[in-house]
Amino acid sequence: MPTQNNENNAARFRSKTLTAALAFLFGSVGAHRFYLYGPRDLWAWAHVIGTLAGIPGVLLLAATERASILGWVLAVIGAISVLSAFLAAIVYGLRPDAKWDAQFNAPFAQAGRTSRSGWTVIFVVIFSLLIGAFLLMTGLALLFQTYFESQVEAAKAISQ
User: Fold this and answer.
1) Is there a contact between 97 and 133 (Cβ–Cβ < 8 Å)?
2) Under a CB-based contact definition with an 8 Å cutoff, are residues 31 and 25 in contact?
3) Total structural domains within the chain
4) Which SS3 state, helix, strand or coil, does residue 81 take?
5) What is the Cα–Cα distance from 128 to 85, expressed in whole angstroms?
6) pLDDT digit of tens for each residue in the chain (160 aa)?
């Protein structure tokens, strides 16, 4: 549940296109969450921590040829942060403007200022889906390849 400061959140208009673009470009460090909810949002900081944990995890996996359990744990934490950011870009981008304004821009919508998202947000959603699905499939392929290679090595060790 996001931590919200009602006085600070009501003071500015939030763009759906900018939010989706921030989630696409910098979502792994929680930029979209910081934009929407401010620096007190715990989920934004979870993105930062997840990404900071994932970087050494990937480096550890590369150094140990995917043999480090700690590397896998840290890399999965980082992958969750990255993939959830792409998912957030898709969810925010596909949300209807009226629902967006009701949740994030209620005082402005009552005054007549509403969101008008266009093709930019559609392209952000398309690229988020494309890159997010590619990363997910690549991660799963590496995970399964590593698992099956370890099973073959274990079978060879037993048969000798």
Assistant:
1) no
2) yes
3) 1
4) helix
5) 9
6) 554 444 445 578 899 999 999 999 999 999 999 999 999 999 999 999 999 999 999 999 999 998 899 999 999 999 999 999 999 999 999 999 989 988 998 887 677 777 788 899 999 999 999 999 999 999 999 999 999 998 999 898 898 8
Upper half-sphere CA count for residue 52 (Cβ side, 13 Å): 8
> Which amino acid is present at 72?
W
What range defines the domain where residue 110 resides? 6-159
The one-letter code for the residue type at 101 is D
Structure tokens that stand for 148 in this block: 């099956």
DSSP label at 60?
A: H
DSSP 57: H
Which two tokens mark 2? Answer: 């996001």
Rounded to whole angstroms, how far apart are CA atoms 140 and 134? 10
Torsion angles phi and psi, residue 107, rounded to 5: -65, -35
**pTM for the predicted model, two decimal places:** 0.84
Residue type, 119: W
Query: Does residue 1 sit within a domain?
Result: no
